[in-house]
Amino acid sequence: MPDHRTPEQEDLLVQNVILGLILKEQPTHLTMRDLAAEIGNEIPAQDAVKELIVKGLLRREGESFLPTWAAIHFRKLSA
Hints:
Elements lengths: L6 H19 L4 E2 H8 L2 H13 L3 E4 L2 E4 L1 H10 L1
Antiparallel strand pairs: 1-3, 2-3
């Protein structure tokens, strides 16, 4: 069966993968290069990171991206 995701669903999927990876790899600091390699494309990775920062789930520290306390707490609640 073909995959029929909307662009919004694709964006959310990439955001989920990025946030999940950053939370899983914590306390390792991941860079955009690391995230783009995981996604396979830098532009969707950049878009996802920007949106996650705007939503308060990621923060930037130099060249690295880290989860916010809110993201960490939500992951604990979801476990």
